[in-house]
Amino acid sequence: MGGFVIVPMQASDWPAVQRIYAEGIATGNATFETAVTADWETWDAGKRPDCRLVAKSGDDVLGWAALSPISKRAVYAGVAEVSVYVGDDARGQGVGKALLQALVLASEEAGVWTLMASIFPENEASVAIHQQCGFRLLGRRHHIAQHHGIWRDTVILERRSQVVGV
Known about the structure:
CATH superfamily of the domain at 5-116: Gcn5-related N-acetyltransferase (GNAT)
Number of helices: 4
Order of helices and strands: EHHEEEHEHEE
Radius of gyration: 15 Å
Shape: globular
C-alpha cells in the first residue's frame, strides 16, 4: 500500500463520494440501492458523524468508508453497519482494506463495540477484506430482497471489538 492517506471525510468530499458510490452501484454487487443519494444532507443524516473516512491521493478521493447506526434505540448505540466503497480506478490497490482497518480504529475510538456488514456473496473481494480485518461470517440471508427484480442473498459478517465493551 502506498500513494494515499486516510483522512476524515469532509462535506467538500461529497462529489467524489457520490461518484464512487455510483460506481459501486453500477457493479451490481455493492448495494441494493439503485440510485445515488441526491444530496449531502440526506446522505449525512443517515451516517454516524464520527466515523467517516476517505482515502486520498493528493486531492483525489480514491474511496470512502462510513458507519451507519443500526437502530435509534440506546441499547444499540455501540453497534453500527459498515460501508466501504472504492473507486473503479483504485480497486485492487489495498485502498478498501486500508479504509476498513482505519474505520475499525475510528469506531473503537468512538465507543463502537460491534460492526456489522451485509454483503452480496458475489462480492468476494469485500467479504475477504472484512474477514482479514477481523470480521467473522455469521451466516447467509437467502433471498432477503430483490435487486432489479431478482431475489438476492447476502452474507452477514460481524466484528466484535476487543477494546470497547469487554
